[in-house]
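Model: You mentioned two targets. I'll fold them one after the other.
Researcher: Yes, keep them separate.
Model: Target one:
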Amino acid sequence: MKFSPSTGNFYPDDIDYPTLPSDLVEVDEAEYAKAMARAPDENFTVVDGKVMIAKDPGPSDEQIKAMVAAQATRLLAATDYTQTADTAAALSNAGDFTAYRAALRAILRDPPLEPIWPTVPEPAWA
């Protein structure tokens, strides 16, 4: 049995593959059995030519902040329609949308790791 770190796949010896990755490492049956019995939050890694099981570290702080910023951008876009003059004049709660969008822009400027998302107002048509 072989394992490729670049593909994350195992390659049994009894299958004839047309091509194989160049980074294959030998894996014994015990390593393979351990890999197949890993927990859902564990991944494979190769250390000194051996397949090891490691906990998935999850996203980094920077990745979390990028996801938070992307969500804030999506939420802002979803209420863009409230910012046209005609729509704002037709909303009796246009100020609620202004406050909501200001809170989202504050999150977007400095994305926190654990944001407290403002509640989107329901449009109240005048």
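Model: Target two:
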Amino acid sequence: MKALILAGGSGTRFWPLSRKARPKQLLALEGERSLLQETVDRLQPLVAPADVWVCTTRALAEAVREQLPEVPADQVLAEPEGRNTCPAIGWAVGLMIDGGLDVGTEPIAVLPADHRMADDQGFRTTLARAARAVAEHDYVMTLGVVPRWAETGYGYLELGAALPEGMRHVLRFVEKPDLAAAEAYLAGGRHLWNAGIFVFRGTTLLDLLAKHQPTLSAGLAAIAANPDHAAEIYRSLPAESIDVAVMEKLDHIATLPLDCGWSDLGSWEALHEILPKDEAGNALRGEVVALDSTDNLIVAEGGLVAVLGVEGLVVVRTGDTVVVLPKARSQEVRRLVAELGGLRRDELL
């Protein structure tokens, strides 16, 4: 099995720690290794670093290579321009096949660079089962996370008929639900969170693109035939997610339940949930003094942060910025990023 890691996101949810030149996947949010490095580590020994490809942006390619010296440098692919996940995956899979390795019929796992698993071995076991299904039956597989609460911020997979070896048919992809629907999904046991992790044969994926996205498929073929004009052609490709462009259109897609403490670490609040905490429920990183304070996430990167008598806050200090906001509103940090963009404070982004 080969792996294609998608590492092109901007990571604005963790601003100011994340910046354009150092987005979320390049940050060490929990330990000493970045989320990208932990993603590669997690795959071993199932997928060796020599069998890993990373699709990232031109701006981040060198930083990715520095973080992953064990991955061959020419397998860090710099996407000509950000055009969402479907063009990125199709373009990268085409390059993997053109590289001459046996990735046309061998399973390829596609996964984000910035997710967390509490149980790495459990993840590898499920991923290996999916790869066997692809190798033996040419399935298109997606890994769906067993929901742990009624989440309205994730898409869902609705489960259909049972398939051999514990697999299930995916009846349909469901967009982010309202709370009542999410509670019904949790109680009913027929839905999984959509984690955006797929396994398929490379040739199968390209065939599906030709069938369901002929314009994109033709564009990728044109890039292969005219690599000197790759940037110009790529810019014209339809910018759609792999879910919408391909996966939601398939009548036969299978899933395996993934139950290994998955998190997309989508906010400061989500990070607070998984970090170790003191007796007062504070998650503290860096040089921090917290007195009479509870349920806070405080990150000090350069300099001391001291708090007194506060509750439920996110406080982040970097070399040039201090951010303070209620933990429950941590998803709204993007508003601050947008405001600074409007003020043309690009040096802070």
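Researcher: Noted. Anything on target two?
Model: The mean pLDDT is 95.
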